[in-house]
Design goal:
mainly alpha
């Protein structure tokens, strides 16, 4: 696949295609040619690039994992973020799990600002990556708990 600018729609489409099993698999799922799909990751002066929204919708419905990079791309454009909610695994996310994840984040934050920090109290790139991982884990726990509450409030349980 092409080497693309991060945070571009072409990069999001390329990541979605990878999540769907590659160009041939996704082209087959969508019923389009590989060249048509590949065209969606091309940078071109004649057209803005990307893949038509109808294809993105169809691709996300056929292979839900492909919707994640697209949702993350558009959420970032709106100065937000997208956190997928795991649909498999334990269904019970508790407030205790949220508290644990928050405690992990506090620990990583303290380490990044402590005496043992490589940055001398200023967050380094490595520490920022660790903190982002902890924030993502906390957000996943919160999103899972919220999904449970929505399910209960809408009568699913």
């Amino acid at each position: 696949m092409r080497n693309l600018r991060p945070a571009s729609i072409q990069s999001a489409v390329q990541t979605a295609i990878r999540a769907g099993g590659g160009l041939e698999a996704v082209a087959n799922d969508l019923g389009v040619g590989v060249s048509t799909l590949s065209h969606g990751t091309e940078l071109s002066e004649q057209r803005p690039g990307g893949l038509g929204v109808n294809y993105l919708d169809r691709m996300g419905r056929i292979v839900p994992e492909t919707a994640v990079p697209v949702a993350q791309h558009f959420a970032a454009l709106a100065h937000g973020f997208f956190q997928p909610i795991a649909s498999s695994g334990p269904q019970g996310v508790s407030v205790h799990q949220i508290a644990k994840e928050f405690a992990d984040l506090l620990g990583a934050h303290a380490a990044a600002h402590g005496e043992g920090s490589d940055g001398g109290g200023i967050v380094t790139k490595s520490e920022a990556r660790d903190l982002l991982r902890e924030v993502d884990e906390l957000m996943a726990a919160v999103a899972g708990f919220r999904a449970q509450l929505v399910g209960i409030s809408e009568g699913e349980r």
